[in-house]
Amino acid sequence: MLLADFGTTYAKFIDLAAPHPAPYLEPSKNLSHELRVDMATGHNGKRFSNRYINELTALARGGEHLIKEENFTLLDCGSRDIKFVRYEKGRLADMGWNAECGASMGFTIELLGRYYNIDYEQLPVPEQSFSVTCGVLGMSQIFDEITAGCGEETAVARFVKSIAINAYRFAGEPERIYLSGGLCDNQLFVKSFPGDVISLGRFVLLKGLAVIANKENEWP
Amino acid sequence: MLPGTEDISCLEALAPGAPVGIVGVPPLAVMTALEKSGATIYDLDESIVKRDMEETILYLPRVYCAILRTVVMNSFHLDLQAIIIDVGPGKCDCALHVATILTDRLPIPVLKTRNIDATAYGTPLCKAKLALPDKIARICKSIQNTSDHVQLPACRATAGFWGVPPRDFSLLALFPETTHVYGWTRCMENKTPADLELESHFNPTLPTVFFAQTFCAKTALAKHLASRHPHSLFLDNDITAGSSTRAKIQAFLELSGVYDASC
Fold first, then answer.
1. Which of residues 216-235 of B touch A (CB under 8 A)?
2. Nearest C-alpha of chain B: how many angstroms from A98?
3. Are both B97 and B134 inside the same structural domain?
4. Which helix (H) or strand (E) holds A24?
5. How far is B210 from chain A (nearest CA, A)?
6. Based on the domain organization, do B139 and B159 belong to the same domain?
């Protein structure tokens, strides 16, 4: 059974029928139009599957399975949007999906890293942040900071911290937050969150699909 | 004359069938006068004129309530003979300012009303078993006449929808038929649009979506009530419901077990 989470910049797959199943990534721009999977979620999921599960449902089911707590907040930060689910006493209590004001935050961070040749692993968390509405509008703020004499790396680091604070507030400012999605791999972003952060990696929605398909036991 | 309502005697001169637009829920006395005149009523809050909403930026900021942008679009393209616009506590301040714009720009009477009617008509549709888009469309239609509501049996509710009739009714199709309606839509059916107590009422045992139009002042009440409700989703939407809006509703209802309970 081939499951896939078709994100904006990367698709995540797992073939549970393989002898040794393991999740893997593929850049979305490399996907063949003929590709078909058994079950899909994600922004591009409907194009490639007849059984589509919406992203919040997949996120919630993945979170329920992976987090052994009755009360938790799970925030997914992807290329294009951010979304969260909050559970209280084992029940869904709140949720959100910010595709507009959270627009392109992850994608913008990746583009900035490449343009300025920044290694986010090495960049320290800056003291300051600034107010950003979304990834696109935040770009202007970076240019303003640089014009005002701030170094490029520091300006970008402030931007990344600002995005992390936005995401944290969007999720309701929990004391501890579980993080999923592509930005889990960005250490500067993860360390910029106030409070405790537990990264669950990029495959939480894929795990949610396995749960929905009753195939979670076949996950490696 | 009704307190806060402009002189409506000009309605008496309308020929039967004359097209008249209404915004919000005008007072019963005004609707009675309209019924008596035999006017053809257009609810300008509804999407009647299908044109690019960007046309309205000639008159309104782009960042403005989509319902009132719709009102402006309809008002400029329908060949109306009068407009009755409620601007009181049963509607909003933004409608008051839109009334100013329409008065200034259109060559027809634009009559402002302040509906503070308190006679409860009841809310049978809000509690009936009906597809939610149809249910809310019938509630919107019900404000256009003054006759008593047809009584309908109340169904056992499995979900709640709190809020105003959305600009895009397609988002309502995601709810089960057993969804009870709350908020200003309930006030509409009750013909008491300024009844804040009724508007603020919700059922804490029902998973409920608290909806308001983006850029509408009611987003504050929707967000506040959602925070007081133990099992809720606050949702705002502008002109059309995008994929994330639909997914939020669908996931909330699914994860709350509403679809299972409605089978």
1. 230-233
2. 8
3. no
4. strand A24-27
5. 12
6. yes
